[in-house]
Amino acid sequence: MNQPATSDVWYFPKDGLTELIRVLQEDGFDVIGPTVDQGAIVYASIQSAEDLPKGLTDIQEAGSYRLEKRNDESLFGYVVGPHSWKKFLFPPISVVAAADRIEGHWEFSTPEEPQRPFAFLGVRACELAAIRVQDQVFLKGPYVDPIYQRRRESAFLIAVNCTQAASTCFCTSMKTGPRCQSGYDLGLTELKDGFLLEIGSERGQQLSRSLSLRPTTAAEMAEGDLRRQQAADQIHRTLETDGLPNLLKQNLRSSHWDDVGRRCLSCTNCTMVCPTCFCSSVTEVADLNGDHINRERRWDSCFNPEFSYMHSGIARDSIPSRYRQWMTHKLSSWHDQFGTSGCVGCGRCITWCPTGIDLTVEVLAIREAAATVESVDRGTNHE
Ligand code: SF4
Ligand code: SF4
């Protein structure tokens, strides 16, 4: 057999996934992939292809998510669930320092993370984009986050192209999907009986040499194109991004923030499920004897009132101000800070908002309200 080259597309049958997982495990990786837990598809450690959700799909709407049976045995026939890879690269709780009282004095340490490198199986195009965004936040600024860096640099990414989309997806508006373009080691497209495999990196190329691959046929390539196009055709939700950063900056006093504030519970769900949100706070946790203290970094949220606590009180003490902070950061000031949007169009915040608040609809409302004010102003000036 020919040796796989980066530009080639290869084929392996469905049971080849078992071989891929085994090779990754033999190389020392903790393979993380989609699994079913409590009625949702979530990412967890998997031992074999048997652990993947077989013949299931997800039905997502604003404020609603459910799994349904498909009429085939697809292993990746759904989109993204409440988890993202963020929870492995930027864990919800990390011990960043510890202190132990030993014979009357304190010893400080930085705990080592006992850890096998991760192999992520099933990374979607919007999730590759989210990882790129978090790379920007944690690795490319003046301060590098050592926990993220260790986990990210050793991670092996196996992307899976979406062959269907949810009603909440809008990756096409954010130019992040549905096709996986770069940033992966291996890229898969699921066909009826097997997978197309694309090689995205040197590491991917090296690993692919241990797999039983064969060149693709024209029919398999055409089937892959058709399935990927099906996902693109199913995306109907849009977010108009032209001029959006300025639009939000110029409408900080829009009455629409009060409107959304009446519906928002400030529950933090949107920030927890968002694959790019990165806010955290640090807290010290002592044991009952007071002999051991962990300094823990925990995910936090701009929807928590205390998150904006400063010397003289809470800076954002109303829900409208917190929603406005979240949305204007994501879609406007994130560009100033990191040179990119903070939203990749995955739709999670729409699905997992208990009151079904949809940022694409809220942006449209602000745009329309601003246009109305502008046209009234023009009319007034004309008179
Ligand atoms: S927008 Fe929705 S998910 Fe986010 S804090 Fe408000 S109620 Fe919770
Ligand atoms: S803001 Fe919402 S749609 Fe955008 S990346 Fe975060 S969860 Fe996904």
Keywords:
34% helix, binds iron/sulfur cluster, 2 domains, 23% strand, alpha+beta, 383 residues, 4-stranded antiparallel sheet, globular, 8-stranded mixed sheet
Instruction: Assign a percent range to the helix content.
Output: 25-40%
Q: List the ligand species.
A: iron/sulfur cluster
Number of helices: 13
Per DSSP E runs of 2 or more residues, the count of β-strands stands at 16
Low-confidence stretches: none
Mean pLDDT: 95
Strand content: 15-25%
> Which radius of gyration do the C-alpha atoms yield?
23 Å
| Approximate shape | globular
Largest sheet: 8 strands, mixed
How far do the termini sit from each other?
79 Å
Q: Which structural category fits the helices and strands?
A: alpha+beta
- Element string (H = helix, E = strand): EHEEEEHEEEHHEHEEHEHHHHEEEEHHH
Q: Count up the domains.
A: 2
Spatial ordering of strands, largest sheet: 3-2-8-9-10-11-1-12
